Structures are given as structure tokens and as C-alpha cells.
Amino acid sequence: MEDSRAIIVGASHASAQLCASLRQEGWAGEILLIGDEPSLPYHRPPLSKTYLAGEATLAELLIRKPDFYDKQRVTFRQARVTHVGLQAREIRLADGATLSYDKLVLCLGARPRRLTLPGADLAGVHYLRDAADIEAIREGLGTTKQAVIVGAGYIGLEAAASLRHLGVAATVLETADRVLQRVTAPEVSTFFERVHREEGVDLRVGVGVAALEGEDRVRGVRLTNGELVAADMVIVGIGVVPNVELALDAGLAVDDGVVIDACGRTSDPDVFAAGDCANYFDQRYGRRLRLESVPNAVEQAKSVAAAVCGKEKEIAALPWFWSDQYDINLQIAGLNVGHDQVILRGDPSEGRGFSCFYLAGGKVIAADCVNRPQEFMFSKRAIATELKLDLAQLADPATELKSLLLTPAAG
Ligand SMILES: Cc1cc2nc3c(=O)[nH]c(=O)nc-3n(C[C@H](O)[C@H](O)[C@H](O)COP(=O)(O)OP(=O)(O)OC[C@H]3O[C@@H](n4cnc5c(N)ncnc54)[C@H](O)[C@@H]3O)c2cc1C
């Protein structure tokens, strides 16, 4: 109906997709996009890569140019939404204004988990989530001789790579006994540790951070073993927490994210959610998941757009992710949860190209492909079709992958 209004909260990856998909699915009414950042939705992944390295402008990062929103008749308003009233079907903005909706989509994303140690609020301590965070880091880089990165997940490692690219000395501190522990096999962690050390990063695993020290601004990181690591900038990358407060306050079901069904509907029939803030049931992996990736935000947005228009389009795409560090493009297909076997194709202990396949019951369920785009494409197909493979052939770089797809092992 042309006089209906859909409000999207959060100018995000999911919402950029929604603006296109809502029209494709036949939404004829008003679309109001409300975000608390000053910009239209922009690509977040380059923030820790080319944007931090000063090789891209924010205008270049826009997911869709301003005229796209004009053409789709989408109105953008910069404001923070502070309240959702489900009964009245209205939202309140920080300036007190209220707006009614017919359909509401929450694309609230996530925010960095904060350090809660002494000194965590000192000047020179940074997080990585939005363009403003990167601009603050870049401003500080002129006077930075030694940066310390707390956390060796993807964001921390990408930040280290960008800083090394800029010639800044970088130390990475990780509490776990290997980098990327939560998400990869030990072989993949060892590979990334070697690469970062080859690139000049002082990488320390199995170290605890006790405090950040300094007078007016940070000057060092005190480890739990008493050592002081000098730092004139600290970047914290210790994970994110979903932005669920609006949903909680409204009375929507929340459980590590806004709970949505297979089509993106929340516990209220007129409210939907997508992206980092949403927790859905994944049929393939048989469990509820909250994913933090661009492909996930985009795929969920497509399902939500259909649901807003009264159609059913289940969230079914295979999860995938990527990370760029130095000359390495890591592509990850699927989730390795519950794997019982790891097969390597290529040697991670030398060079910069190999794949690590994760199997459960003899079937590939996930793969980390380092500079191996074809193996990534193969993995996506093998996972989607639940192909059973000859493992010796899979491990042998001489075997053509295409032949594996054509002649699956019996059983
Ligand atoms: C530095 C960095 C690097 C990354 N690299 C990769 C990568 O290589 N590959 C990959 O797949 N993913 C990567 N990601 C993750 C990816 O960017 C996220 O998964 C994706 O942005 C999630 O999109 P979203 O639509 O859920 O919300 P987001 O893009 O997080 O946007 C949510 C928006 O909602 C706004 N908002 C929240 N609450 C309110 C409110 N109450 N009122 C108004 N606005 C509100 C937020 O300020 C934000 O602008 C990276 C993320 C970061 C930060």
C-alpha cells in the first residue's frame, strides 16, 4: 500500500540491501532509513584495511551512491532511535520526535566489546567499528611510534597489517595461546603467526593485559607478568556485542541478538531484524547462530524484505567470510563448528597459499582458503551439496578439484 511506511533503523550493510530488496519485493510505500552515523551505509570491512591505510575515502566506501536512494524513494535521516513502542507501532528519536511505522526493521549491528581494565579510558586507546574510529586512529598516527593491538582476531590482525603497511611498529597481544583461536584450526593460526612475524609484528600469544598506563594519554600496556610494553597508541579488538537494547526495551525476544525466525521476523509480527544484531536458526548447522559478516547481513536483508511484503524466503545461504592481511586474501566457507577432522591442501608452514578443510563425518563442512579462490569456490559447492570426498585426493594439490566434484567417493 502506497501510504504504508517502513522504517529501517541503522544505516548499515543490511539496510543498504533492504532498500533495494524492498522495492524488488513490491513494497510501494514510504521507506525511511534512520541511522545515527552521519553517512549513508558504507562498506565496513575496508575500515581496518584500505581506509585505515589511507587508500580510500569514505565517499568511495558508500555501498550505494546517494542517487540510488533517491531513485528508490528512500529518505535518509540522521538520528538515534531511543525507543520502540510495539503497541502504538511508533519509534522515538533522541530529540523526542516520534514516528509511526507499519513495518519496522532493526539493522542495529554490533559494537566493540570494551576493555574494562585500569587506564582503558586514556587518550590514545581506540576501537574499530565505524569511520569515526578510523579517523581518530589516523589522526593519532602522525605521533605514533609504537602501536599495541590488544586481541588477535581478524580485526586486530588486519589492523596490525595496515599499520605495518604504514611503517608503524606494531605489537599484538593475545591472551589465548594462538591467534584466531576461536575460529580456525591450529595449523591456520600458526600460518598467520608466521606471516605477521615475517612482516615485522611483535606478536605475543598467551599474555594477559593487566592495565593500560600513562598520565594524560596511554604510554604503555602492563602485562600480567609485570612487563611494560611501550605504546603511544592502543587499538582494542576483543570482539563485539550485538546492539539489542532497543529490542530488549521494547519487549522483543532477545537471546544473544534479537531473536528472528527463518524469514527474519521477530517476536512481533510487524518488526524484523537482520545482520550482526540478529540471532536466527540455521537449518544446515541445526543451531541458532548470530553471525558477524557482510554476506550474512545481505542475505538476511533479502529474506526480511520478502517477509515485510508478506512472502516467505528463508535464510538459507551458506555462511562465508573473508579477511585481507598483507598480500593474503583469506576466504572462509561455512562454519567449522563440530568438525572432527582437518585436511590440509598445500603446506601452511611455507609460502602464502593453502587450504584447510574442516570435516564432520567425512563431509566438508567448512574451509579456510588462503590465496586459493578456486578452492574456496569448490568448498562452497562441496558443503552445499554435502559431497563425500576421497580425502587423499582432496589433500593432494595435484588432484583437480573439478574431478572431485564429478566423482564423489562412495558411501
Ligand atoms: C573493521 C571491521 C572490519 C570488518 N571486516 C569484515 C570482513 O572482512 N568481511 C566481513 O564479512 N565482515 C567484516 N566485518 C563485519 C561486517 O562489517 C559486519 O558484519 C556488518 O557491518 C554488519 O552489518 P549490519 O547490517 O548488521 O550493521 P552495521 O554495518 O554494523 O551497522 C549498524 C548501524 O546501526 C546504527 N545504529 C545502532 N543502533 C542505532 C540506533 N538506536 N539508532 C540509529 N542507528 C543505530 C549503528 O551506528 C550502525 O551505523 C568487519 C567489521 C569491522 C568493524
Name the descriptors:
single chain, 411 residues, alpha/beta, five-stranded parallel β-sheet, 26 strands, binds flavin-adenine dinucleotide
Task: Describe what this molecule looks like in 3D.
- This protein has 411 residues and is of the alpha/beta class.
- The protein has 11 helices and 26 strands.
- It has helices at residues 13-24, 58-61, 66-71, 131-141, 154-165, 186-198, 245-250, 294-308, 373-384, 391-395, 401-406, and strands at 5-9, 30-35, 74-78, 81-85, 90-93, 98-100, 103-106, 110-112, 125-127, 146-150, 169-174, 202-205, 209-214, 218-223, 228-230, 233-236, 240-242, 258-259, 271-273, 278-282, 287-289, 320-325, 328-334, 341-345, 354-360, 363-370.
- The strands form 7 sheets. It has a 5-stranded parallel sheet with strand order 3-2-1-7-19. Strands 9-16-10-11-12 form a 5-stranded parallel sheet, with helices on one face.
- Strand 11 (169-174), helix 6 (186-198) and strand 12 form a beta-alpha-beta unit.
- The protein is globular.
- Bound molecules: flavin-adenine dinucleotide (FAD).
- Flavin-adenine dinucleotide binds at residues 9-14, 34-37, 44-45, 47-48, 80-81, 107-110, 128-129, 155, 243, 246, 275-277, 292-295, 297, 321-323.
